[in-house]
Amino acid sequence: MAYNEDMARGWESKSVEEQISAAEDRQHDKDKAAVKASDVERQKRKQGLLLERGRITREMELAHKKQYLVLLERALAHIDAEIAGLEPTQTKKQAEK
Known about the structure:
The protein has about 100 residues and is an all-alpha fold. The protein has one domain. The chain contains 3 helices and no strands. Helix 1 runs antiparallel to helix 2.
C-alpha cells in the first residue's frame, strides 16, 4: 500500500508542475500578444504620420505664400518629431552611436 501512496504523490506533484508550467506559458503568450498589439498600434500610427508627412511636403511644393510655407515647415517638424518618438528604443540607441 505504501508503494501506491508514493506513486500517487509523485503523479500529483508532476501534475502541479505541469499546471504551473502551463500557467507560465499562458502568461508569456499574453505578454507577447500585448507587445505585438502595441507594435501594431505603433506601426499604424507611424503609417498615418508618414501619409500626413507626404501630404505636407506636396503642399509645400505648391505653396506660394511665405506664411503658409512657414506653417507647413513647423507642421513637418512636428510630424518628424512624432515619428522619431515612435521608433523602438534600440533603434534610437543605434542612431545615437
